[in-house]
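Propose amino acids for all 499 sites.
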């Protein structure tokens, strides 16, 4: 452990809450160079923002001061909700001149503390910049304000039989600007590829208050440095995204969901590889969970799903693969051919496919309901990693054995692209502490040893910042810090996060 990691590891100042028990995530000391908010500052914002765009009472600002899981808690006294890019630019110019720290916030559905204040930073919410501005049916490019809810954006595109290439469990509250800023993954990555490949243009307000117009609706634009890519995945530390041009895709007319029961993980890996090879572009999702995780979901689903299989003997050794097929031709034939192929290879124990919309939703809940089930039996200590899918079973068994006295271990994820979610239902507060102190670093060191990533899709934020310095090349880190200096010389934008 290097000196910086030791500093952060020893600088916990407050216990944060999740579920029944407390977490002691890093809370760095406040940067004393930042100005304390004064009434004169609020009066300045009142000069160009209406009263509904300025929140100061405790009840109104509480939701902006804590993350979705209620792990991280800030102390902001002011939330600003600009309606235009120009208003946001005035806010940032003033805050930069006054050295007032600012946290940009979208739907606040992140899981690593990246979208909430650490101390008394002002929160700038994009909630009121939420319009779909245009959709070109010829190019299939949608232009949208950053605060638009992901589900609302796709609802807008439905009459055109189109969708944006990202689908998340939080789609009912997450915002497209936040999705881009954190480079969200989700279940559609296997079908469309990463979101950054489909963001054609951005409008950004810099920390100094400049409006950086990188908007573009052309799929091909080879005119120098592609600056917009710097802001995709930057987690709101380099600038605030205000508008985006995103390529949309025609939705397939037909879909089906298949759940495959396998005797063990190795067999599940074979099914995964065969499905990818056999179905090609007709796969729209490829998900995994192990037998123990399935049992936990079934026992805590509260009527939201059912067990489609009759043989559940030795389920602790079994693994399950969820395959969503989407296409525009005879889907029954595609499903039957896949069934026959897996039967021919003898690499499954049982298999079911959805025969109705209700069955489709209930099969999906077996995978989507894991986090909810974990919370019902303990406190969810969650880790989002990526590695070669062949390691999913190995690391699950290692962590389950290590943590068997302190937590129930669940294992699921996007096996199509190598993103594993390990979630632990900790038994009590002492067990939560043991997870952090005895097992977290082991897991991240293991990830490094197999060439994986400590964050597949959730980002770094505040939670994983101490580990970034051990898992990122020093030269790369140096350039990240230089970029921060270029765009944010006073370090006022989303401080204490990433770099």
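Proposal:
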């Amino acid at each position: 452990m290097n000196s910086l990691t030791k500093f952060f590891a020893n600088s916990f100042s407050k216990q944060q809450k999740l579920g029944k028990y407390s977490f002691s995530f890093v809370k760095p000391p406040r940067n004393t160079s930042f100005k304390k908010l004064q009434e004169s500052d609020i009066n300045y914002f009142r000069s160009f923002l209406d009263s509904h765009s300025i929140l100061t009472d405790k009840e109104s600002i509480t939701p902006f001061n804590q993350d979705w899981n209620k792990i991280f808690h800030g102390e902001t006294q002011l939330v600003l909700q600009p309606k235009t890019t120009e208003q946001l630019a005035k806010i940032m110019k003033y805050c930069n001149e006054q050295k007032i720290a600012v946290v940009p916030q979208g739907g606040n559905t992140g899981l690593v503390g990246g979208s909430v204040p650490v101390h008394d930073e002002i929160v700038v919410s994009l909630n009121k910049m939420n319009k779909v501005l245009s959709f070109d049916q010829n190019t299939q490019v949608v232009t949208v304000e950053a605060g638009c809810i992901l589900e609302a954006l796709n609802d807008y595109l439905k009459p055109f039989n189109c969708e944006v290439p990202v689908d998340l469990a939080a789609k009912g509250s997450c915002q497209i600007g936040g999705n881009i800023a954190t480079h969200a993954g989700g279940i559609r990555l296997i079908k469309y590829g990463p979101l950054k490949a489909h963001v054609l243009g951005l409008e950004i307000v810099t920390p100094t208050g400049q409006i950086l117009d990188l908007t573009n609706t052309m799929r091909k634009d080879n005119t120098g440095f592609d600056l917009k890519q710097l802001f995709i995945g930057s987690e709101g530390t380099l600038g605030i995204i205000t508008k985006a041009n995103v390529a949309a895709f025609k939705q397939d007319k037909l879909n089906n969901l298949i759940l495959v029961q396998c005797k063990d993980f190795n067999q599940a890996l074979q099914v995964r590889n065969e499905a990818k090879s056999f179905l090609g572009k007709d796969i729209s999702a490829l998900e995994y969970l192990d037998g123990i995780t399935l049992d936990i979901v079934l026992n805590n689903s509260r009527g939201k799903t059912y067990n489609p299989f009759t043989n559940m003997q030795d389920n602790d050794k079994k693994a399950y693969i969820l395959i969503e097929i989407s296409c525009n031709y005879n889907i029954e034939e595609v499903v039957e051919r896949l069934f026959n192929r897996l039967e021919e290879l003898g690499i499954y124990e049982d298999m079911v496919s959805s025969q109705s919309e209700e069955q489709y939703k209930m099969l999906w809940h077996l995978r989507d309901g894991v986090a909810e089930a974990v919370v019902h039996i303990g406190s969810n200590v969650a880790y989002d990693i990526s590695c070669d899918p062949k390691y999913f079973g190995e690391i699950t068994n290692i962590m389950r054995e290590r943590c068997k006295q302190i937590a129930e271990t669940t294992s699921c994820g996007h096996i199509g692209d190598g993103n594993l979610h390990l979630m632990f239902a900790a038994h009590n507060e002492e067990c939560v502490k043991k997870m952090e102190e005895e097992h977290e670093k082991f897991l991240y060191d293991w990830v490094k040893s197999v060439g994986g990533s400590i964050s597949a899709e959730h980002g770094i934020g505040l939670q994983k910042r101490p580990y970034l310095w051990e898992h990122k090349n020093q030269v790369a880190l140096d350039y990240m810090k230089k970029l921060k200096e270029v765009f944010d010389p006073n370090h006022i934008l989303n401080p204490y996060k990433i770099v």
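Residues 254-449 form a domain with the Alpha-Beta Plaits fold (CATH 3.30.70.2190). The longest helix spans residues 429-449.
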